[in-house]
Amino acid sequence: MADKKSPEEAAEKATNALMEKIVALCKRRGFIFQSSEIYGGLNGFWDYGPLGCELKRNIKDAWWRDVVQRRDDVVGLEATIIMHPSIWKASGHVDSFTDPMVDCKTCKKRFRADQLCEELGLKLESVETPTGKQFKLPAGAKCTACGSDQLTEPRSFNLMFKTFIGPVEDVSNVAYLRPETAQAIFAQFQNVLSCARQKVPFGIAQIGKAFRNEINPRNFTFRSREFEQMELEFFIKPGTDAQWHEYWVKERMKWYESIGLPASKLKPYVYKKEELAHYASACVDVYFDFPFGSQELEGIAARGNFDLSQHQKHSGKSMEYFDDETKEKYLPHVVEPSAGVDRIALALLCNAYYEEWAPTSESAGSAPIPAEHGKQPPAGFESRVVMRFAPRIAPVKVAVFPLLKNKPALVEKAKEVFHLLRSQFVSFYDEAGNIGRRYRRQDEAGTPFCVTIDFDTLGEKGPEMKDTVTLRDRDTLKQERVSIKELPARIAEAVK
RNA sequence: GCGGGUGUAGCUCAAUGGUAGAGCGGUAGCCUUCCAAGCUACUUACGAGGGUUCGAUUCCCUUCACCCGCUCCA
Q1: Residue among A168, A171, A177 at smallest CA distance from A134
Q2: Is the pLDDT of residue A378 over 80?
């Protein structure tokens, strides 16, 4: 009786097990490692290994191509991570990124100080300081859980990483690592406008690192303290907010499908009126079904002119745009699609992971079948793990093998083919172990194509087979005879 | 930050108050004519720091990391 598990518990156990397998594969194959692992690791920080950094690069390249290079109306920007502290004052991050927390010394519960006071009908006291607000509990504050008045003073957890510019560690030299890439775009709006010869509507895009001192990093790389963002600020004429917002939500959903995330696992979450920030007119989050739940990959917000007007106010510089056609001056409104690169990488890894029963040599030629949890594969099959990345996003596009390692003519020809392909695609050469083992290694790396050089390639079966190779498909395991000449075009077609 | 759990090789797991063993993997060699075959050799670990003890991977404390719940989530 005590051993009986509810369906919910069983399902939870299965998803935990799945995440653990994905984490193990990420380490085994060199996708993601713990940061500073030899020193015990560092909470909230992760490194990308040889395959992982190729994957991430492919995500960023795809985004940059689709959002910037292939459009007439978007230009790029690469700003510094540390910027003038006033930027974060203007953006609201210095004040609103702070959560004052109090702990009950008696029952160890933790509360947001403002919420606790509100519940008691009191008002949290605060004083402005150069580095943000300092909070003080009003008289009469007590723990709402146990009633004790033994509460710690409110401590501010500002989510921005702080540092100092120059040698003196002093309040006047405080600077922050950017908690988002977006603000630099607003701060450089006039510079970009004056050189890029763009007219509203147009966008400025940036990819880069951002830092948030999260209280509680969780779910592998999903919530990290150092992460990478891809943000677009698309500046529009006031009043066209709704139509552009709708446009970008559609564009972004399409993009996720283009990198191989299925529509069935992507869900738009439309913010309700009361959930919106006061300046925003609309916001849609793109959610992905991770093994640990449906979670946000990107937020697409219509932010009005809040950011530009804030910077105009704080800097005293005009952020206005002069419209040649209507001869009007105005502060452009903005639609902001803001995506997390690491979250997308994690989504791709989770989505690509499959356990299958693949045919062994006895039943070669059969199609692989999905593995059934907790069961042994049927005779003639054995389990394999395969990462089914979309070819466009796969870290390695093609692997090249000589059928046998101890035949110099095969090795020489294979290396020749490898060098030919390497000039165009991320390629991998392997000759260790038997051919099946090498195929399986590439399955775990998610390499969509394997090319094998055999004796027919050398012309042993006659001239019509000479200079043809086996092209093996990762997903179907099907093999096809293709001439070396046609190979680059075949692969290029699949990975474009 | 609180509570619970976990920490032995790259992975999965074992044993033990007297300094650790296997399978898989990896590397090298032999072999191998298309899906993890075989043989040989090599490789690698008690998360970190203290304490108790003649002696600690094992017991105790602290710390770090990971997982789960709470909390938090621009």
Answers
A1: A171
A2: yes
Q: Which range has the worst mean pLDDT, A85-94, A156-165, A330-339?
A: A156-165
User: For A214-295, where are the alpha helices, taking DSSP H only?
Assistant: 241-258
Q: Which nucleotide is nearest to A481 (CA to C1')?
A: B34
User: Angle at which helices A341-352 and A50-64 pack, to 10 degrees?
Assistant: 120
The residue among A180, A187, A189 whose CA lies nearest residue A208 is A180
Tokens of residue A204, six digits: 């400025």
Q: What is the DSSP secondary structure assignment for residue A268, as one 8-state letter?
A: E
Closest to A468 (Cα-Cα) out of A476, A477, A459: A459
In Å, how far are A183, A185, A239 from A243, measured between CA atoms?
A: 24, 22, 9
* Cβ A417 to strand B below 7 Å: no
- Six-digit token string for A248: 């970008």
Contact at 8 Å (CB) between A14 and A355?
no
Look up tokens 């895009």; give the residue.
A205
Beta bridge pairs of residue A206: A231
Residue A409, strand partner residues? none
As for the ipTM of the complex, it is 0.91
C1' nearest to CA of A159: which nucleotide? B74
Q: Say which nucleotide is closest to residue A455, CA to C1' distance.
A: B33
* Range of A43-47, A216-220, A378-382, A447-451 with top mean pLDDT: A447-451
Residues 59-118 of A with CB under 7 A from strand B: 93, 96-97, 99, 103, 108, 110, 112, 115
Contact A356, A370 (CB under 8 A): yes
In this complex, the answer to whether residue A287 has its CB under 7 A from any atom of chain B, a nucleic strand, is: no
CA atoms within 13 A on the CB side of A443: 23
Pair A259, A247: CB distance under 8 Å? no
